[in-house]
Write the structure tokens for this entry.
Amino acid sequence: MIERHTTVAKQARWYLLGEPGPGTRELWIALHGYGQLGARFARHFEAIASGERVVVVPEALNKFYLEPVSQRPPGGGTVGATWMTREDRERDIEDYVAYLDRVVAEVDAECGSAPAITVLGFSQGAATASRWAATGSRAASRVVLWGGLMAPDVIARGATAMRGAALQLVVGTSDEFATPKVVAAESGRLKEAGIAFTLRQFEGGHAMHPETLAAIAASSP
């Protein structure tokens, strides 16, 4: 058996909060977690969007039903999306980096400039955010990994991985996935690789936290 790959055109769905234009100073790219969809995730960013701060919420290219077939209600079930799985992962990574590059280029064209970029990845989206920050067409000013880990292949790049972006880890004190043990191990890996970062914590679990998000938005990228 010979494995082959063919490049095909695919339509991708993404959401825009704020109105891009000459007055846009900040562009945020917000990447959702496993099993989420862009529209629901975008609601978390409504309060921080404006003409000066535009938030782009791309939806992952791979959709699936969250419930097993036997548990789906008549007419279908709950749909989520994922950035990648272990199957054919390298090509999925190439596809989503190219996708994010295309989205950013479209928004830049509407702005007529290249605004400072904050890329935020929640949960599974953290690995996606770190890969785009390391290899995308435009360097970010700030990378926020929220309740998720930097991709191991990005950590392996060492101190230059973030291309000058300020890196911030954001974790809830009762996050069932990003536990204190996981965060300590991740901090150790980043320090060993020479990747500078700051850690911000909030009272809560594996979720977005409005007050923390507002505080990040209020600080300089």
Notes: The mean pLDDT is 96. Residues 4 and 17 are 39 Å apart (CA to CA). The helical segments are 38-42, 89-111, 124-135, 152-155, 180-193, 210-218.
